[in-house]
Amino acid sequence: MTKPNILILMTWPHAVRFVYENLLRARFPDISIKTVATIDEADEAIGEADIFMTFGVEVKRDIFPKAKRLKWVHAFGTGVDGITDQVGLSKDVIVTSTRGVHGPSLSEIAILHMLSMARDFPRSVRSHDQHKWDRFRAKKLQGRTVGILGVGLIAEALAPRLKGLQMRVVGISRTPRPIESFDEWRSRDDLVNAVADLDFLVLLIPLDETSRNIVDDKIINAMKKGAYIVNIARGGVIDEVALHRGLSSGHLGGAALDTVHKEPLPADDPLWDAPNLIITPHLGGFYDAYPEDSMEQIGSNLERFIAGDFDGMINRETR
Fold first, then answer.
1. Do 145 and 168 contact (CB within 8 A), yes or no?
2. Mean pLDDT of 230-240
């Protein structure tokens, strides 16, 4: 096919906004690439694009009805919500995502959150800011039971790291499968019983209509008193009003969210003031070498796309 036009929507700061464009230009110097910083700019330019690349969470509204030439959308993250759930996206458009590079980084932030809650690290930081020597007894992760809801490549990377901390690791999935480092499998279809004895529940489940608000009042109340929740999936998989209730009542020992229902989270959102809650601004996969780590699969897919080998493109979403 003729050389495609690529449109990239990237809201990162200007100093790093063009990193994907630069990496692609180095490998494909003859291809037209345009990077824009806002959804309004993307809305204006998408009519000329054959390929659109972005993070799904950046697509704040349906701009696809104007995309008459569009043949392929690539999500820089694992999630395609914001893309495949837009009614204006033609069913003929190929959708791919970035997979297989997030395991180490998301595992690290999951463990960071778990340690921070068990050790009440925010309390130590606040005491430091007040020049206050506040010594208290913390909890350890060793011997605790952690359940991972949603067992994919990231969970496969996280589980052995948790085993290294001598935790008991439970996989919660629709389809149990033999994977090293998991001690037990439980059914997602019986989530109430699956979470009953967990000390920690880590959410890694993709967001779709079957998983939206899957962790609600019923699930939170089924967890034992003092348990912790870590969400590094999507904000929509947990009912955040129910979470606020579980924290305010003292039923939950704490929670940590790296992703929330609305990003960026408004300054007046009640979540900011929920007790024993840690919020980080979607930092899990946001690390220095992420674009370089993901470029091999993006570049390989682009080569196949140009060659017309659409069936050979990897990480395709079933639509």
1. yes
2. 97
